[in-house]
Amino acid sequence: MNMQVKHFFDKKDIQLSAKRYGIDALGAMAQGLFASLLIGTILGTAGEQFKLEVLVTVGNFAKATTGASMAVAIGCALKSPFLVLFSLIAVGQAANTLGGAGGPLSVYFVAIIAAECGKLVSKETKIDIIVTPLVTIVSGVLMALLCAPAIGGAASYTGRVIMWATDLQPFLMGIVISVITGIILTLPISSAAICAALGLTGLAGGAALAGCCAQMVGFAVMSFRENRLGGLFAQGIGTSMLQMGNIVKNPRIWIPPTVAAAITGPLATCLFKLRMDGPAVASGMGTCGLVGQIGVYAGWAAGVASGAKPAITPFDWAGLGLISFVLPAILTSLIALPLRKKNWIRENDLKLDL
After folding, report:
1. Number of domains in the chain
2. What are the tens digits of pLDDT across the range 41-63?
3. The CA-based dihedral angle spanning residues 222, 226, 232, 233, taken in that order and rounded to the nearest 10 degrees
4. Contact 279, 191 (CB under 8 A)
């Protein structure tokens, strides 16, 4: 890269890096989804169940801001100036609407481009209050008009293929989806954003949820002797990503929860028929704030309300509890025992600095 261009990019804090775009922006997008679509779905479901119309109304307003919330969150991750951030509201709404079912992925790409274009011109003219919003919105909306339908369509098609394959081969795909999604959740990448971008629901969403729960609950229980109650809650309803530093030091500690995911995934798809018919983003949340479980319940409730599901049965609840909490805890602990005996997992290998 030309030195003058590099210096200008550095001044504008534009970093063409995998971390900035593939980790920071993607993780922020998931938070934007949580603060709009997901919380709106939770509020709406609670309102419908408890006959509180005000919660349904609040939830609908929250869900209506999905595109804008994701775009602004991405802009924050890219350290955009205020005028760029505010302008991304329109960009996100356009990309999400034009992207259809694959709206989140459309917002991800379009918001990054619009934010960086806005940053390039920010504070470069005496009429910044006009130029910066103009460049950000025009570049973003034009990009959305040109690319969002294709990006959204491709993401939606990919998600449908994965879900179709899961319905066709629930055992094999249950293993694959559960293991991969669980690994992504523990890595510094957003599994929630990926599930949302692909629209991963149905049996595939259930397998994804199983994998995430296996990692979170598995690490929480396996490391209880080192981290006690603080670690149990931090990982069990927070994130297993806290173990990433320990995994780098000793990758073998990742074996028990990953093998557990390979077991619970096909159990979710084949035995319990666990489906995520709530928002796709919940498929990649696991037990974080119990969002995954609330998402499954939201799908059940919607199915009962529409007549597609006769009732929520004790078997449904048993399957959700076993896949989310009981089996990950038991399986991970059992799988870890021989590894501890072989000294593959040593004392304090799972210790967190809490």
Report:
1. 2
2. 888 888 988 889 999 999 999 99
3. -150
4. no
